[in-house]
Amino acid sequence: LLLGCELTSSTKSYTFQVDEEDDSDHILALSVVCLTDGAKDECNVVEVVGRNHENQEIAVPVANLKLSCQPLLSLDNFKLQPPVTFRLAAGSGPVHLAGWHRIMHREDASLEDDDLSEEDEEDLPPIKPAKK
């Protein structure tokens, strides 16, 4: 599934979340952050807000865009675990974020893991005694 959102001075944040009762694993990957039509030549800082291992909120800047020097940034499918919030920490935008959302059903993942482990065992060469 494709993801897209736009951050502006009137819409400073966007939260991507999944249903808490969903038994699937979700991966959100951010591909591109770019300035769009109407952007001023100012620093636009985009932060990702999430939770750390102690469930404390943390904000990490992922892009600092300026129309005259860096209007676009490729993040090479930067993977995140939902829920996650994208926030325009500085600037007025508009900043467009694009990426994808992958859903892995746990039953499917466990079957794939079993299949992979059996294939891996078959591909391994037999153990030979060391030469003395």
Automatic annotation (TrEMBL):
GO terms for biological process: chromatin remodeling. Coiled coil: none annotated. Pfam families: Nucleoplasmin. Keywords: Acetylation, Chaperone, Methylation, Nucleus, Phosphoprotein. One of its GO terms (cellular component) is cytoplasm. Residues 3-102 form the Nucleoplasmin core domain. It is found in: Nucleus, Nucleolus. Residues 110-124 have a biased composition (Acidic residues). Residues 110-132 are annotated as: Disordered. Gene3D superfamilies: Nucleoplasmin core domain (2.60.120.340). One of its GO terms (molecular function) is chromatin binding. Interacts with NPM (via N-terminus). Forms a pentamer with NPM at a ratio 4:1 (NPM3/NPM). Two pentamers form a decamer. Plays a role in the regulation of diverse cellular processes such as ribosome biogenesis, chromatin remodeling or protein chaperoning. Modulates the histone chaperone function and the RNA-binding activity of nucleolar phosphoprotein B23/NPM. Efficiently mediates chromatin remodeling when included in a pentamer containing NPM3 and NPM. Belongs to the nucleoplasmin family. This is Nucleoplasmin-3. The gene is Npm3.
